[in-house]
Design goal:
Length: 161
């Protein structure tokens, strides 16, 4: 039986979440200052929260939770959450928006790969703390582009893209 690419990505995301829960329980929220106001934001938490702001939603993922909100309130939401292990945000755009983001965070792209219509790149920025090792490189940003949908995560994208 052949496993499709979405199943592989889902399994990889679950494994990475588990690894991050073990090695990075106190993620630095500096990344949230780079979240675009026009984006959909996901915070990945070790524990489900009882103090959810009214303009957010929460998804229980068994070993933790995902809190979702709009980019306009991301900074406020991040301040109210404990045990953040990662943050990602999704918006519409193209190469210009990716280049603008990389310049803002002063990031160096370390490698990229494409699978079908999806291009994924790993990068490192000295402006952000923490990171994980991917293919022997310390990374703290992942950018994925699928058509005109861009997802950016730190230290990597922990959900779908």
């Amino acid at each position: 039986m052949e496993i499709n690419i979405k199943s592989k990505i889902f399994v990889l995301a679950v494994v990475l979440i588990m690894c991050l829960i073990i090695i990075m329980p106190n993620y630095n929220c500096a990344f949230v200052s780079y979240v675009r106001a026009d984006s959909d934001v996901s915070f990945f938490l070790i524990n489900k929260t009882d103090q959810l702001p009214r303009y957010c939603s929460q998804v229980d993922i068994g070993s933790g939770a995902i809190v979702k909100c709009k980019g306009t309130v991301a900074t406020e939401v991040a301040k109210s959450l404990d045990s953040i292990t990662g943050i990602s945000f999704t918006f519409s755009g193209g190469d210009k928006e990716i280049d603008d983001f990389l310049k803002r965070v002063d990031a160096v792209v370390l490698n990229c790969e494409s699978v079908g219509n999806i291009t994924s790149c790993f990068a490192y920025s000295r402006k952000l703390k923490n990171g994980i090792h991917v293919d022997g490189n310390l990374v703290n940003i992942q950018i994925a582009r699928n058509g005109n949908t861009i997802t950016i995560g730190s230290p990597i994208i922990l959900g779908e893209y």
